[in-house]
Amino acid sequence: MIAGQTALTEDEFAELALGVDSAFTQLFTGVPGESEAERNARMDAAAGILADLRREDSVLAAFAERLLMVAPAPLRRPAVIRRRASVERVAA
To answer: DSSP H helical segments within 1-92, as ranges?
Structure first.
């Protein structure tokens, strides 16, 4: 409980305790299905924001670093396997 409110998920706790939303956590953890280019762009942005946080808010910087460590890697789109229907032909 934080200030009389109950956090049910990790995102809710982060929002109540640190004032960050799910977009902040996704910046450091990623989202399932992101492409390699999307991941690289996200990681570039996260590195810049983390550098700012280290100067301005050490608690939030530590949280962001922790998110980077627990993020599943790599976050790739699942492969699509296409199968062709097999047609058996029998000589008459």
So the answer is: 10-18, 22-29, 36-56, 58-70
pTM of the model: 0.63
- The closest of 43, 30, 41, 40 to 75, measured between CA atoms, is 30
Arithmetic mean of pLDDT, 18-30: 83
Q: Which phi and psi (to 5°) does residue 55 adopt?
A: -80, -35
User: Cα 17–22–26 angle (5° rounding)?
Assistant: 120
Residue 81 CB neighbour total at 10 angstroms: 5
Per-residue pLDDT, averaged over 14-23, amounts to 74
Of 30, 36, 40, 33, which Cα lies nearest the Cα of 80?
33
Q: Which residue has the tokens 């991941």?
A: 39
Paired tokens of 91: 């000589």
Alpha-carbon dihedral 66, 72, 76, 77, rounded to 10 degrees: -110
